[in-house]
Design a protein that fits this description.
The chain is mostly helical. It has two domains: 2-31, no CATH class; 50-133, Alpha Horseshoe (Leucine-rich Repeat Variant), CATH 1.25.10. The protein is 62% helix and 6% strand. A two-stranded antiparallel sheet has the order 1-2.
Length: 138
C-alpha cells in the first residue's frame, strides 16, 4: 500500500511540476494556465451546440462563476432567451439576472411573455435581482 501511495504522490508532484492540474484522483489532467478568455470562448461556442445539455451547461457555467460579467457573454445569453428549449431560456434569464447593464432589461421583459411558465418565472426573478443589484437604478 505504501508503494502505491508513493507512486501516486510521485505522479501528482510530476503533474504539478509539468504545469498540470490533477482532478478526480488523477483521472483527468488538464494544463494549467488556460486563460479565462479560452474558457469563455469555449463556453460561447457551446451555446451553439445542437445538444441541449451542452447549451445548458455553458449557460450555468456563465452564471455560476460570474463569467456573465464578461461583455462578450451578454449578447449570446440574450440570444439564448429565444432558444427552442425552455430550460435553456430559463437558465439564460437567470444568468442575466446578475448583470447590471440596462441592455438586458428589455429582452427580459419580452421573455415575461414566454409560453413556458417556468421561463416567465425565471425572467421575473432575474428582473428583480437586477433591480436589487442596481439599487433601483436599472
Amino acid at each position: 500500500m505504501r508503494k502505491l501511495w508513493e507512486r501516486h504522490s510521485y505522479l501528482t508532484v510530476r503533474a504539478v511540476a509539468l504545469g498540470m492540474s490533477v482532478f478526480s484522483c488523477g483521472f483527468a489532467l488538464i494544463p494549467t494556465g488556460h486563460g479565462q478568455d479560452d474558457y469563455i470562448g469555449r463556453l460561447l461556442a457551446d451555446l451553439k451546440d445542437p445538444k441541449v445539455e451542452v447549451r445548458i451547461h455553458a449557460i450555468r457555467e456563465f452564471g455560476d462563476y460570474n463569467n456573465v460579467k464578461d461583455p462578450r457573454v451578454v449578447e449570446p445569453l440574450i440570444a439564448a432567451l429565444t432558444d427552442t428549449d425552455g430550460q435553456v431560456r430559463c437558465d439564460a434569464a437567470s444568468a442575466l439576472g446578475i448583470v447590471t447593464t440596462t441592455s438586458i432589461v428589455e429582452p427580459l421583459i419580452v421573455t415575461l411573455k414566454d409560453s413556458d411558465e417556468h421561463v416567465r418565472s425565471c425572467a421575473a426573478n432575474a428582473l428583480g435581482r437586477i433591480r436589487n443589484l442596481g439599487n433601483g437604478s436599472v
